[in-house]
Write a structure and sequence with these properties.
Number of helices: 14
Shape: globular
CATH topology: Na+/H+ antiporter like fold
Order of helices and strands: HHHHHHHHHHHHHH
Mean pLDDT: 84
Number of strands: 0
Strand content: under 5%
Distance between the termini: 24 Å
Radius of gyration: 20 Å
């Protein structure tokens, strides 16, 4: 039993992803479970936002709010994201892409233009990075995305019915709900409910294991989207392969930029770890729905990379509580 618990602790993220995939496939292809699947589907949809709220609340309880401020690497990671997006949009327009080629590029674009994942501070803290710097960039990244989407999407997809003000306000609303609300609650708890705050911050790796549970749900949804994608298998594999290459490039580029500012971990997670749930939503809403397979695959690749990073730090004995 001790060895099993150790295994779960060491490989929380891969176990969560594998469990989410197997549970979905079990319910999807077992006729006897059709009733249970119908009942549980909306329940899971409601539970996931709750998990994200709890993850961020626990993480923000450990934040020193006086240290939340922009730093140099924030600028260069933001510039790099804008440069990646500008290059891809330029290629789409220059070659007048359409059909499956355009869908392929849209799948890649959603993985680049999406904001930094709300759970990125959890991994950064686990790897020994600066929690406050990562939290600050998570907010900045959402504003960069809010500016880029209404500018770029109408240029590459004429059917993208999106105004600048509407898109910016919609994303701003999401930032307020997803990020500001748990941060405000954490600030209140930290300064007024000291006993409860001490208990929350005293539970080792609480936010990390909550994130593992949410990852199980997200992976199940991702597998569902891939299984029901109306496209040739070869095309889906091509999207998955490009998502893997892009994931590696973004993590590597972020770490390369970060090493100039002694923020290798933070910058790598900032550019590489994306809010894929948001990316899937914008693909469905404004682009060809099939392009959502891109961020769907990206979430698997980024969490495999996170798992390897955590495994390496654990082997070195440098892993931190989160």
């Amino acid at each position: 039993m001790t060895a099993f618990i150790r295994f779960l602790k060491d490989w929380t993220l891969p176990v969560a992803m594998l469990s989410g995939s197997l549970i979905y496939l079990l319910f999807a292809f077992t006729p006897a479970l059709d009733g249970a699947a119908t009942f549980l589907a909306p329940v899971c949809d409601q539970i996931l936002p709750l998990f994200m709220f709890l993850i961020l609340f626990v993480t923000f309880c450990k934040v020193d709010f006086k240290k939340l401020a922009p730093v140099q690497w924030h600028l260069w990671i933001g510039v790099q994201q804008v440069a990646f997006v500008a290059l891809l949009v330029a290629l789409i327009l220059w070659f007048r892409m359409s059909g499956y080629t355009l869908i392929l590029m849209e799948a890649v674009l959603t993985c680049i233009i999406g904001p930094c994942a709300a759970a990125a501070p959890v991994v950064t803290s686990k790897l020994g990075g600066n929690l406050e710097e990562m939290t600050t960039y998570t907010f900045l990244s959402n504003f960069i995305t809010a500016l880029l989407i209404p500018v770029c999407f109408p240029m590459i997809d004429k059917a993208a019915d999106i105004s600048f003000a509407a898109a910016f306000l919609k994303i701003l609303n999401q930032v307020c709900i997803v990020l500001l609300l748990p941060m405000l609650l954490a600030f209140i708890v930290k300064h007024t409910m000291h006993r409860f705050h001490k208990w929350v911050t005293g539970v080792k790796d609480l936010s990390y294991y909550l994130w593992g549970c949410s990852l199980m749900l997200v992976t199940g949804t991702t597998v569902k989207n891939i299984v029901h994608a109306d496209s040739p298998v070869g095309f889906l594999l091509l999207i998955a392969g490009l998502a893997l290459m892009l994931c590696i490039v973004q993590f590597a580029t972020g770490r390369f930029i970060g090493h100039y500012f002694e923020a290798t971990v933070e910058a790598g997670q900032a550019l590489g770890q994306k809010n894929t749930a948001f990316a899937i939503w914008i693909a469905y809403t404004y682009l060809n729905p099939l392009s959502s397979v891109g961020p769907g695959c990206y979430i698997l690749w980024q969490n495999i990379i996170n798992s390897v990073e955590i495994w390496r730090e654990r082997r070195k004995g440098n892993l931190h509580a989160s």
